[in-house]
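Lab meeting prep.
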Amino acid sequence: MKRKIPFSYNAPVTLTFSILCVLVLLTDRFILEGTLIPAIFTAPACMTEKNGFNWNYVLDYVRLFTHVLGHADWTHLLGNLAYILLLGPLMEERYGSKMLALMIVVTSLVTGVLNVCLIPSVLLGASGICFMLIVLSSLNVITRNKIPLTFVFLVAVYIAKEFSGAKTAETSNISVVAHIAGGLCGSLFGFLAVPKAKRASARAPASLVRKTPATSAKSTSPAQNQQNDWRAKWEKIRQERLAKIDSSSPREQRTVMQTPYDAVSSKGPTEDDATVVGTLSL
């Protein structure tokens, strides 16, 4: 019999986001013939352009969030999924599914609004989400009053890469501003978001927090010390009473009387001795 290997939906937000991106591109390519993504899954351009944001069109507000699910082609999609599926589960385990979902929504809105305000072309793709995860993952080892040197190098390389490729990006739907906005969102989340483990420890009751002997002694109040003294006195009294009861019980006397016969008499047991021992045994 072959052993079945169970699959685990270990990162629900990351996996759901990735599956939605694939389904959107599949539907656009093979069912709706390239009309779905331009209509719903692209962020509008600035309002001065022909296809810019329209205040009276409700769908344009929705597109400020949904543009991260649309991609230009399979190369664009697979490049983004490589980063999302690599870093997303790690960040989801660290910050929790709800917090990661909030990060994705906020990053989508920020990149969409910046595109509407600054960029004369439409925007699509999860590149902003990718750069948000890249910067966020580099801040995992951050400590108080210390900034990791890897974070500084990553930001420098990232900004240099974006400005060096700005000319080629002008003719495409991939916005450099969206990438930079995603990186800024990731850095803010890294400094402001609280990891899941710290949130759980903060919500834990005080009785469940382990205390060392030094801290527990310091935190004990005078009333608790007095209560502990009374408990110690009552325990001592209880032990003394139990010892008296055991010393006066027939069982204790039987133990004392059952000594070797040569200790009672050098001639061996007598009839009287047998009677006494038998009586105590009853």
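Slide two material, second protein:
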Amino acid sequence: MFEKALENDIDPSLLYRGCSFRLVQMSGLPPDHENYARAALPAYGHRPDAELRLLSLSENATYLVGGDAPMVLRVHRPGYHSLDAIRSELDWMAALRTETEVATPELIPAADGSDVVAAVVGDGMLHVDAVTFIAGCTAEENPEAVGFDELGRLSAHMHDHVERWTAPDYFTRFRWDVEATLGPHARWGNWREAPGLTRDGVAVVERAASAVAASLTEFGQGPDRFGLIHADLRMANLMIGESAGITVIDFDDCGWSWHLADLGAVVSFIEDTPEAERMIVDWLRGYREVRAIPAGHVGMIPTFVMLRRMMLTAWVASHADADAAIAFTDGFAVGTVELAERYLSDRSWMRYE
């Protein structure tokens, strides 16, 4: 949708027909992030001058390392995750791959067995990790390759797994609760600063935000509704391979939140379209094939869709230089206002009970 193809920068043999890599640009990393990737290469048995191809520059810098056994090297931006938090993400990703039907990339440890490498450039240090390269394209780029019912099943398997999984003692991930998503210091920024928001528009979204916060507070964080989730399980984070089927990628934002926040993420950027409502129907059908959803939870779907939209509006505001944000600058905030009005007034919207 909003990703830039790298077809002129990636070996065509690594691409499937109709597929492309995504390049999203944003701030947060030092401009010499490639130097950190190269500084980490010897730890993985590669020369510092090995072929590197940038796959994405988003929250982190992700590189494809060429060779007979290509791998994906991720340079973490400073200040977002601690070392233990990165290791925790990788632990859950590995556990899902080995203990469930959810396919994820496989961690590639450094030569000394470390799962995360400290790459030093001058006086700076950034964490780097590596995983297997998944050839193919995203489900967003080839939506006919996967249905939203399958995404619902994958979500259910992930939620089920967390309930029985024993995490390592050092396990730590942040929370996507009301404060982190809508508070004055929300993790993705302030939606009020989104380009195109008028004073009247801010007032409407403010009322919706208050209603969402109140609804979530009343809903609570019981174990039947709140746990470790992917938190960005949209089609862009599902890789479609020629033989390996669907692989879930990008666990960078996984954390503790409401299970239905994963559903809100499914319709990211198109929350205000009729297509979104059809996608949710399919997701619910697939999810229920694996895991039950209490009747009282289904009525919360409009709240989680509205929450996701406000989070993305904040993201667009705080990442103005990102290609993804630029693509949604015109009219996105206006659409958020219209969705907020519908959330506040249309009691038939997104009702699946």
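Talking points for slide two:
The chain has eleven helices and ten strands.
Confidence is low (pLDDT under 50) at residues 1-26, 321-327.
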